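User: Teach me something about this protein's shape.
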Amino acid sequence: MVSTYSTYGELPKLLAAGLVNLNRVEVLWRPVTNHLLEVIIHPLNRLREWGIDVITTLVRSVIQYDYSTPLKENQRLQTLLISPLNELSSTSFADVQQKQVDCVLHLLHSSGDIISFGWPLFLNIIGAINNSQGKLSLNLERLDIGYLQSCTAIKDFDLDPNDAPKV
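Assistant: First, the predicted structure itself:
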């Protein structure tokens, strides 16, 4: 379990280190996000809030970064960068799930054209949220947007959108 006293000071440093080292994301991504995923399951609300804010900020930043090989063409990197968002689906904290949804919706709106290989992870996240809908009080408009985006993803995979589950 993460120590509360040491983590309060570490979170801003992790964010700063992550943002400064976006060019070395493949080396630093797993250790940084694994620590943040531990923080996110902490019972202290404020610490959890900081952790989810840091991880979503980092995910948004790494997706927007200009890599030498375009992210749109790099399946391994896309999966690496989006997987921490997918791992958030295992938490039972509604505040974490809400921030997860907000981040996914932001990425769909701002970088949907870049994330060609990440769609299965996004669909997995949307499906996990749908499964825990009883525990999570989401804004229905946001859930509808997520559903519409998943239908777009299904079309991108040349599947029949009528096969998608009805919300």
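Now, about its shape. DSSP finds seven helices and no strands in the chain. The first helix runs from residue 4 to 20. If you'd like, I can walk through any region in more detail.
User: That's plenty for now, thanks!
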